[in-house]
Amino acid sequence: MAGLLILGLGFLPALRGDLQQAKAEPNLEKRSKLALENADRALKDARAAYARGDFKQTETLVGEVQDSVVLAEDSLRETGKNPRKSPKWFKRAEIETRDLLRKMESFREEMSVVDRPMLEKATAKIQQVHDDLLLGVMEGKPK
Question: What pTM does this model have?
């Protein structure tokens, strides 16, 4: 069991490097997708770190979740596309951020009340990004 735990810990740095890989992606829409995939992996790793009692690592990974979501939003904004006319990537990002929010809430419920504040900043930012994406897709014609 200890060998598996050590083996599993060896993969954490490799996963954290995925945000750099996403930043290197020249296609902005694919960059957004890679960033959101990284956010999901970072959240899973944060839950595992919290279960191990590694609160510093948990906080770092929660920050990575937030950074990944911000990268995804910025990448979609940089495309210059109207989310209403080309909704594919924007809607995908909206759905994935909504799913992340649900997972964050579930993680929050599993945490001790004392530890919950470490999720507040990231959750608020993900909620804001989700709301902006949803508004972009649902917004009508400019007046």
Answer: 0.83
